[in-house]
Specification:
Radius of gyration: 23 Å
Oligomer: single chain
Shape: globular
Largest sheet: 7 strands, mixed
Structural class: alpha/beta
Length: about 425
């Protein structure tokens, strides 16, 4: 329960007495942003809210601390002057196709444009997607240039080794009916499980069926595009793509127990080459640390693997994870294709991954893949060989397996020879 401004106590999950159940309904899947309606997750005017949760994902809790400490005025309104996207994305047909996008708001980057009238009338709206320009500075890229493996072109790869990219940050926005369908469950069961597994943090999940959109307190997605962003939606564009799940220890600090940073860098290098050859390179970086089990769990598993009798072994790699976490992998790639559909992608020429889970998620969602590119053997750290052998044995990673084009054509409904 909570107190409103008049001091009355009310159940948090129910609207104020006399208020409509939802003053601003969301018609998810409508290709028209006006008909779809804005996503309102701000707390400055509770009567306007039409979603469960709050903007900012995990960072909404830091906002609460800032308000609590007096550093931030809870009623502060953002000034979005000059924050508009630096690149045009969409609208694309996928935005209005039923069930195609269920985990992000396709209109989230154009909130100040699509809903200018509502904002002028007082609605406190926030973008859930931001698009900017940046440059990447990576020592491995400079090393590749020194060896003559990459050559600067002055546009994509600069003389000093920095890479020009369009950088896109995407906060999760979950449409619960579509999410339930993706995971082959009911919306009611999904709502109750989300409520129970967060310790009852969001009572609206089980009491407000009029609110079907949830802003979950999880990490976001970042996409790095090398080349023309608009060309991603053109069927003939040769796209090279790496979909990468977060691994802080390897990606940032260079821990050598896994192949995460080497594979990520390999993907970036291949994306640079694609952009230099009139294609487009795309890195999608998902915050799913430790196979979405978290870093604490991951480190516990490291200890369990290394201390078992016989040392670290491929045969018990996933067994030790399941003993600690109860599941081998919680990433569940069903939601992963959404960002590619938002970008208008229908075909990936070169997919820098041999993950069967990722491959299946993409092709089952209607995105075809021409070639799957493994990590070169020379980039695999010695301590990561156990991981690689375990993934091969479990069927997570198929370095020798080529896609079954006949089966793939049945899934995606197109003649792959045309690409």
């Amino acid at each position: 329960m909570t107190s409103n401004r008049k001091g009355h106590i009310r159940i948090t999950s129910h609207p104020e007495p006399g208020a409509a159940s939802n003053r601003h309904p969301i018609h998810w899947g409508s290709p028209d942003p006006a008909k779809r309606g804005p996503v309102i997750g701000t707390v400055s005017r509770p009567q306007d809210r039409n979603v469960i949760g709050a903007h900012g994902g995990t960072y909404s809790l830091y906002r609460a601390l800032a308000v609590s400490s007096g550093a931030l005025n809870a009623q502060a309104r953002a000034d979005f002057t000059n924050t508009e996207p630096v690149a045009n994305i969409g609208p694309y047909p996928q935005w209005g196709e039923p069930g195609r996008i269920v985990s992000l708001d396709p209109f989230g980057h154009r909130v100040t444009e699509y809903y200018a009238r509502q904002m002028a009338e007082g609605l406190d709206l926030r973008p859930t997607i931001a698009i900017t320009k940046a440059r990447l500075h990576l020592p491995e890229i400079r090393d590749a240039m020194a060896k003559g493996e990459l050559r600067p072109d002055g546009e994509i790869l600069k003389e000093k080794g920095d890479i020009a990219v369009t950088k896109i940050a995407i906060d999760p926005v979950w449409w619960l009916p579509g999410l339930a369908e993706r995971f082959d469950t009911t919306e009611k069961a999904l709502r109750r499980t989300l409520f129970e597994e967060t310790g009852g943090m969001y009572p609206e999940l089980v009491t407000r069926p009029d609110m079907q959109v949830f802003l979950p307190p999880i990490g976001n997605i970042t996409a790095y595009v090398m080349g023309d962003v608009a060309a991603l939606a053109k069927p003939r564009t040769r796209i090279t793509c790496r979909v990468h799940d977060e691994c802080n220890g390897s990606d940032v600090f260079g821990s050598d127990i896994c192949t995460c940073r080497p594979y990520l860098i390999h993907g970036i290098e291949e994306c640079v080459r694609a952009a230099q050859n009139k294609g487009v390179g795309l890195i999608v970086y998902n915050r799913k640390e430790g196979r979405a089990l978290g870093e604490v769990t991951k480190f516990l598993v490291y200890n369990a693997r290394k201390r078992q009798e016989g040392g670290d072994q491929a045969a018990t790699y996933f067994e030790r994870t399941e003993c600690v976490a109860g599941v081998q992998d919680a990433r569940f790639q069903q939601l992963m294709p959404d960002v590619l559909h938002w970008l208008g992608i229908t075909h990936i020429e070169r997919f820098i991954s041999m993950s069967n889970m990722k491959f299946d998620a993409l092709t089952n969602s209607g995105i075809s893949i021409g070639e799957r590119v493994p990590i070169p053997d020379g980039l695999i750290p010695d301590d990561a060989n156990v991981e690689m052998e375990a993934k091969k044995a479990a069927g997570y990673y198929a370095p020798d397996g080529a896609p079954d084009h006949e089966k793939l054509e049945r899934v995606v409904g197109r003649d792959l020879e045309k690409f």
